[in-house]
Amino acid sequence: MQKAAPGHAAVNLDDLWKRYRCYGDQEAREQLILHYAPLVKRVVSRMGVSESAPLDFQDRVSHGMLGLIEAVDRFDPQRGVAFETFAANRIRGAILDALRSLDHVSRSPA
């Protein structure tokens, strides 16, 4: 049983993962996303935001949430990797993809 966030009931993450993975329970999926949502802000905070960045903090959080949702959908607990590690990479990747899509400098060779 995992410790609950303030104002939330205790959550059994193993049970949520099983309900989502085995039975496709969408309520369990939503609870997993909500449980891990604070991870997005931690990842964004560690990345830093420069004044000249095309995306502000909240924009990065939004793109990071998309990465979190993708991580929940693609996570395989059988691989032995902690979800937080897997998700942090997906979150960071989603943010970097968003930043690259806004970069107006061509990446193709001249």
What do you see in this structure?
The N terminus is likely disordered. This protein has a domain of 66 residues: Rna Polymerase Sigma Factor, Chain: A (Orthogonal Bundle), CATH 1.10.1740.10. The chain has 110 residues and is mostly helical. Helix 2 crosses helix 3. The radius of gyration is 16 Å and the shape is elongated. The protein contains 4 helices and no strands.
Quick structural gist:
The protein is mostly helical and 110 residues long. It is built from 4 helices and no strands. It has a domain at 37-102: Orthogonal Bundle (Rna Polymerase Sigma Factor, Chain: A).
Q: What structural class do you assign from the helix and strand content?
A: mainly alpha
SSE pattern, N- to C-terminal: HHHH
Q: Low-confidence spans: pLDDT under 50, at least 5 residues?
A: 1-8
Helix content: 55-70%
Output the keywords:
elongated, 4 helices, mainly alpha, Rna Polymerase Sigma Factor, Chain: A, 110 residues
SSE layout and pairing:
Elements (H helix, E strand, L loop, with lengths): L12 H11 L2 H22 L9 H18 L8 H20 L8
Helix pairs in contact: 1-2, 2-3, 2-4, 3-4
